[in-house]
Amino acid sequence: MKPLAAPGPADVAAEFQRRLAGYREPVTRFILQAIPDREPKKHLYDIVSTQLANEGKGLRPAVCLATCSAFGGSEEQALPSAAAIELLHNAFLVHDDIEDDSWYRRGCPTLHRKHGVPVALNVGDAMNALSVRVLRQNLPRLGPELAGRLFDEFDHMSLETIEGQAMELGWIRDNDCTTTEDDYLLMVLKKTGWYSFIHPARIGALIANPGRRDLDGFDRFGYFLGAAFQIQDDILNLTGDRSRYGKEIGGDLLEGKRTLILTHLLAHTDASERQRIQAFFGKSRAQRLPREVAWLSSLLRERGSIDHARGAAQELATGAEREFSSTYGAAVPGPALEFMQSLVRFVVERDV
Prior knowledge:
Layout: H1 9-34, H2 41-53, H3 59-70, H4 75-100, E1 104-105, E2 108-109, H5 111-115, H6 117-135, H7 138-142, H8 144-173, H9 181-208, H10 216-239, H11 242-245, H12 251-255, H13 260-266, H14 271-281, H15 290-302, H16 305-327, H17 335-349
Antiparallel strand pairs: 1-2
Helix pairs in contact: 1-3, 1-4, 1-17, 2-6, 3-4, 3-9, 3-17, 4-6, 4-8, 4-9, 8-9, 9-10, 10-16, 10-17, 13-16, 16-17
């Protein structure tokens, strides 16, 4: 009898996506059931439902549920927290797209392009409010002490994310071309790391073991993973396939984002090139010409800035793998632990 072949990269990726969908689907159902079935529907609740039904990857709630399960907890008990995280994430996305004047999200026109800025802002506010309402379900499910600890996690997660967004918006507003790699990594910790990986994992671990106090390992693991995730996102924004990526290619340049890629470029240009780059970012988005974007994209490749970012993402993923070994060392072997382990490679190998 012929021995079975070891699973190849495509098989591993397909299995990861299958498990990711298995976490995403109950969270989406939970969220859609939490949306009020009353007026006003046309300009609020129907838009909220449509926006949330257009699913993203669902990584954040998956990290929460899988971590809870990996440490012996009940995924059912973690559902309100996972749903609250996903609602907050979607609220942030709606507001971020307005702040960045982004055109596409998940392959569709952004909410403010479809419905206008005032309606989109209000929908984002509604999803933020609904996230708190859903989080309150922890009180009868888990008791006041654990629910209070989870609220503190949620509170810290929200403020750190908003502070990170403020840093990025400030650099764009001030046309700051002096940001360093350390500046970028601090911004990414705040804007991406805390709410994408650190707090979802901490929350899942707390629900599994309410008496747990040793949560710092999740901070290190989530920092490395979040930074690798964001850098890969920055790379895909310049090199990805829009049909897969779901957002406009080159959007970060049009929006003036200070990415690790741009930071590297600014450190490897002469005075005249830096002046030209600063002049480009000093314009409004509408004034930034396609030929200028093409020149800047070409310069990024020529100076090795994209390759530098790829190398940084790989190093950070290696750091996440190292922290995973210790942070999840006491977890129960099984599908949830395997999912979390495979997440590290997905973050830097993904094309979506």
